[in-house]
Amino acid sequence: MSLVRLHVEHPLGEGQIVPLDPAQAHYLFGVMRLGMGAEVELFNGRDGAWRAQVAEAGKKRGLLACRTQAGLQQDPPDLWLLFAPLKKARTDFVVEKATELGARRICPVQTEFTNAERIRRDRLQATAVEAAEQCGGTFVPEVTELVRLDRLLADWPEGRALLVADEALAGTGKAAPAGRLPRAPAAMLIGPEGGFSEAERARFDARPNVARLRLGQRILRAETAAVAALTLWQADAGDWG
Amino acid sequence: MSLVRLHVEHPLGEGQIVPLDPAQAHYLFGVMRLGMGAEVELFNGRDGAWRAQVAEAGKKRGLLACRTQAGLQQDPPDLWLLFAPLKKARTDFVVEKATELGARRICPVQTEFTNAERIRRDRLQATAVEAAEQCGGTFVPEVTELVRLDRLLADWPEGRALLVADEALAGTGKAAPAGRLPRAPAAMLIGPEGGFSEAERARFDARPNVARLRLGQRILRAETAAVAALTLWQADAGDWG
Fold this sequence. Notes:
Two copies of one chain form a homodimer. Chain A is α/β, with parallel strands linked by helices. Chain A folds into two domains: 5-71, CATH 2.40.240.20; 79-237, Alpha/beta knot (3-Layer(aba) Sandwich). Chain A is built from six helices and twelve strands. Chain A has helices spanning 22-31, 88-101, 121-135, 149-154, 198-206, 222-237; strands at 5-7, 17-19, 39-43, 49-57, 62-71, 79-83, 105-110, 142-143, 147-148, 161-165, 186-190, 210-213. In chain A, helix 2 (88-101) crosses helix 3 (121-135) and helix 2 (88-101) runs parallel beside helix 6 (222-237). Chain A starts with a strand and ends with a helix. At the A-B interface, helix 2 and helix 6 of A face helix 2 and helix 6 of B.
């Protein structure tokens, strides 16, 4: 049986004593029924993975004592995922999958054909934490606030390639073939179900360092496109090689 | 606005009159509120996509008249997806995504560490139909009955390559690199959350025409692995090229 994994904010290292917040204490001692001396695996996104033992267990509090390092810190390549928010379950899904597949940052963006006007950033960040706990990773991508696409492009960092997954390309021969995708630092942008507007397409064309990514013959739902695009990039230009 | 798409069993062609079953009539006339003369797009998995008009609209019945062909039949490459059933929502998700990404056949398999002992084949087939309606495709993959992995391997068709996505390879340097995946006819097998048993691994090793597929550094959930594996295969050996 594999150990329960828990993300904490506290520094981790030999001899570190890590206090639990009430939700973590409830999870470890109420839900998972761990007792004194039980082992868990901790990570904080900076110090790798650590085995720790329950040193104090209360209803709403507890302490864990770090014992040995179980794994080195492993950060994913410098890839951002930009996506137009979808319905709740599918937005959660995108965040969960982007965490598993190794995105460095997850940026909800508002495009012209995006209906969402706000997101629950804290809830999406919690989804990323939970996904990192489940997938054995030591890194949690940052989920940023919802930002308008035109603003994001206006401030775009020089040197960061932008790959646009454009459903209008499905079934056409146009666009960058997978197999020669730009290296990190990079970002990929998944449009909303309604696709991009003509003005947005023109804005992409006018920028340097933008490539269109074609994802096959069939039209993919936005969340499928996100997973497929991350997979292709990781296999081709990321750390799956 | 794009047309409502509907999968039917009836042959499609110029002048064909297509009768609706009660569920389809309810969907078109009750839910989507289509009236006489309204257009829909039909496909049956064999005759391509056809524009049709409502010629009779009742509460539990209706007729559609085929007008013009809107697209040729497009079958995906001969790729099967074999996967160990997960919890309900995640199993539905795998079927939906495999349809979008272009699998020819979807085969739930029972491995040693699979808990599921039965599936609702009819419900999963309906999920595949709905996914095909949504993604603009003209093909619906067949969802087969749950079968034991050892039986499936005993009857394995000669000449069909088997790619095994093995989570035990995450973080190791072993296994076939993406980029040189076997062509069609092929199948990919996604294991259960608990991975494959030693006996199963030995059985893979003993067969010709089996390759292991490594999906990156991190451990992917089974449904993520299914989407990632299908994507890599389509981009490398399928019809995304």
